[in-house]
Write a structure and sequence with these properties.
about 140 residues, flat, 2 strands, single chain, mainly alpha
């Protein structure tokens, strides 16, 4: 017997997200709330996110500090989406040569785990991500 979708969607999924400390439902509510915004509001939100991301990268990552300085980009001057054209491009060689410099100072390398997609493994490239207890393995199990 299959439980009705309403029961699963309104009771079990939210309970599971609370158990796993997931942000999935919060993100879904945000997307529902913002999906009909005017283009100007969307652009303003994107530009605010860009400013926050560039500021974070420059303040916590040696690689980006060096890359921005070498390209003559002041992170504080990145204000609009048009400024993306001035940001340096990160290549696979950059990642291979200075991978450890790409790790934010807000994380300790020993607290991270190596993560690789199929493409990254074939290209000998690896990245690091924050450890997520058993959440990832549960998600994979649910998908199968």
């Amino acid at each position: 017997m299959r439980l009705p979708d309403a029961v699963v969607g309104r009771i079990f999924e939210p309970a599971w997200d609370v158990y796993e400390r997931s942000t999935r439902l919060r993100e879904l509510r945000r997307l529902r709330r913002t999906q009909w915004e005017k283009p100007e509001a969307v652009r303003a939100r994107q530009e605010a996110a860009l400013r926050a991301m560039v500021t974070h990268a420059a303040s916590t990552c040696a690689f980006y500090r060096d890359s921005f300085a070498q390209a003559g980009v002041d992170p504080a001057s990145v204000r609009t989406l048009d400024d993306l054209a001035h940001l340096p491009i990160v290549t696979k060689d950059d990642i291979r040569q200075r991978g450890d410099d790409l790790i934010s100072s807000r994380h300790r390398k020993q607290d991270l785990r190596r993560a690789a997609s199929w493409r990254a493994r074939t290209a000998s490239g690896f990245s690091h991500c924050v450890r997520r207890s058993r959440r990832s393995s549960r998600r994979r199990a649910l998908r199968s």
